[in-house]
Design brief:
single chain, 588 residues, alpha+beta, Beta-Lactamase, elongated
Length: 588
């Protein structure tokens, strides 16, 4: 005896995001569609309630596309009644994919809305009794069925039009109606060929259709895909307002038109007034918020919204409203600042699917959906790790774009560069010993203050040391020296790092090229970044420039120059773990 708990398992999942909601909707349609007609109970009622909640979150076009995909198993009259009560597009897709018996159709037809009955009439496999019932309900055959054969030439001639209209057929009813002369279609400013004035025959209609087809085929293709980083971009068109919907947490889940890639995912509830309205399920009006992102959405907006409630359960499902630019806002009147904004827009669109992949792989690996075979858990763990690497690479790419364009500045602060180098080399020491490398640090016996926060300084030196050591081989020695100019000379800090042989033979262009290295090293080498060693060095150079310094190549050495301080703002305590009495030199 087997116990089927698939429906309960699906209902235990809370649809926190758009991707999870779509997956759960597919699962519910499949499970409810294959249940026996007499299936009932609290669990089934909860499933239909969840179906209504998900339908309020997912656009009708997406739900219709799901139902129109092959392999759908819609065999439940109750599910068909629920789907046909939704939008016309959803009802039509459900009618076309349904697999009901003759008696089930007869029971369902009286409960169908009018638009669903019209779609049902188009099914070729509809039983005769169902067609008779539809006719009794006023759903008759269409007056102008699509012709199966091409229209013969003599039909197009005006002199042959009258006998065709006089034939006893459904066309006769159409001919008796008063005709309205439509305007000929126009494409790219060129009017299509129009029939002679006063000619309203079938031949004129056929000629009008042929003219439409010729004009459409002559229209040049202008919908070729274009990457946001291409040099030839379309002119900047400011967006003044757009509609949106949000979930119960105040996060945008849908936006109209081309704003969806830039707007979906933004959390509106970070504003105190909006957060209160979301918690209390109240409307809000003319609240000013600031959004970050691409040029089309960055800046100040005024937002209006009203709460939405599920039609079946009455539960709060989020808000719907409009975002509009404040009057007099000049942020959208400036032209795009260049490739940096377009690159950040691309990265924003890439993060969404990668985040979803990472989340689902972690769910599988942690068995949140139930027991999972160990092979699948191992694959899910690999996918989660690869997704994390990709997200880290996207973060580095965006950081480089913002630093290189001047849109980002490093935070102000102070730290001991000698301690940062010591910590970084200590982290690299186990890997260096395992690979047979020798790394040594000189000049870190005293405090060397630098005008950078500790986090930024550690990130910078780790990036450089990891990139260089990933190309070193067994037996090589990498030396790092730290010096500070006298106070009279400005107190500049200089960090000199020797290049491994694999990099020392490259020219400046080859060394700093974004494709240098694969980013992973070999034999357990530290990871230099998703885009390789060359990009890591370029990013380090951009960070050095943002800090007021430089990164220079001098033959077989790299020199990092940073502005120094005469003294630390706060002297380290006596029990500070980075005791400068210890020697920073290490050999692995």
């Amino acid at each position: 005896m087997l116990y089927d708990d698939r429906l309960a398992t699906v209902l235990r999942l809370v649809p926190m995001g758009a991707s999870v909601a779509r997956i759960q909707l597919r699962q519910l349609i499949d499970l409810l569609g294959t249940m026996p007609a007499e299936a009932s109970g609290p669990l089934v009622d909860s499933a239909y309630q969840r179906l209504g909640e998900l339908a309020a979150k997912i656009p009708a076009t997406d739900r219709a596309r799901m139902l129109g995909q092959p392999g759908q198993r819609l065999r439940s009259p109750r599910l068909m009644a629920a789907l046909c009560g939704m939008e016309p597009a959803v009802a039509s897709a459900a009618i076309r994919s349904a697999e009901l018996g003759d008696e089930q159709w007869l029971d369902l037809i009286p409960a169908l809305p009018l638009h669903a009955r019209g779609t049902l009439r188009e099914r070729a496999d509809l039983p005769p009794r169902a067609r008779t019932l539809l006719a009794r309900l006023g759903i008759a055959e269409r007056g102008l069925p699509a012709p199966e054969e091409p229209v013969p030439e003599e039909v197009i001639a005006p002199q042959q039009a009258e006998p065709i209209i006089a034939q006893p057929a459904p066309l006769e009813r159409v001919a008796e109606r008063p005709t309205v002369e439509p305007q000929p279609p126009s494409f790219l400013g060129q009017p299509a060929e129009a029939p002679p004035p006063g000619d309203s025959s079938i031949g004129a209609i056929v000629r009008r259709i042929e003219a439409f087809r010729r004009a459409r085929n002559a229209t040049p293709a202008t919908d070729a895909p274009q990457l946001p980083l291409d040099g030839d971009v379309t002119p900047f068109n400011p967006i003044r307002a757009f509609d949106f919907t949000s979930d119960t947490e105040g996060r945008i889940t849908w936006a109209e038109g081309g704003m969806a890639p830039m707007a979906v995912g933004h959390l509106l509830a970070h504003h105190p007034a909006l957060a209160l309205a979301v918690r209390q399920h109240q409307p809000f009006r003319a609240i000013t918020i600031a959004l970050e992102g691409a040029q089309g959405i960055a800046g100040d907006w005024q937002v209006d919204g009203v709460p939405r409630f599920d039609a079946l359960s009455g539960r709060f499902v989020g808000h719907m409203g409009r975002l509009r630019r404040p009057v007099g806002n000049e942020a959208q009147k400036a032209p795009p600042s260049g490739g940096g904004d377009r690159l950040r827009q691309v990265l924003h669109e890439l993060r969404t699917p990668v985040n979803a992949i990472q989340g689902f792989s972690e769910i599988i690996q942690q068995q949140l959906f139930g027991p999972t075979p160990h092979e699948y858990r191992a694959l899910a763990a690999v996918i989660a790790a690869d997704s994390a690497r990709m997200l880290a690479g996207f973060e580095e790419l965006e950081r480089f774009a913002r630093l290189d364009s001047g849109a980002m500045e490093l935070a102000s602060g102070a730290c001991d560069m000698a301690e940062c180098l010591t910590v970084a080399l200590a982290r690299l020491a186990p890997q260096a010993r395992a690979r047979g490398l020798h790394m040594a640090l000189a000049g870190a016996e005293a405090i060397v203050p630098v005008a950078l926060p500790a986090l930024e300084a550690e990130r910078l030196v780790w990036r450089l040391l990891a990139a260089l050591s990933s190309h070193a081989v067994a037996g090589e020695q990498l030396t790092v020296s730290l010096t500070q100019a006298p106070e009279q000379a400005g107190g500049q800090i200089t960090i000199v790092m020797s290049l491994p042989a694999a990099l020392a033979g490259l020219g400046n262009v080859g060394l700093f090229h974004a494709g240098t290295g694969d980013g992973h090293g070999s034999g357990g080498a530290p990871w230099a970044g998703m885009f390789g060693t060359g990009f890591a060095l370029r990013l380090a150079a951009a960070e050095a420039r943002a800090a007021g310094g430089r990164l220079l190549r001098e033959k077989d050495r790299l020199s990092l120059l940073l502005p120094g301080l005469t003294r630390m703002p706060l002297e380290p305590s006596e029990d500070h773990p980075g005791d400068k009495g210890q020697s920073a030199s290490s050999a692995a």
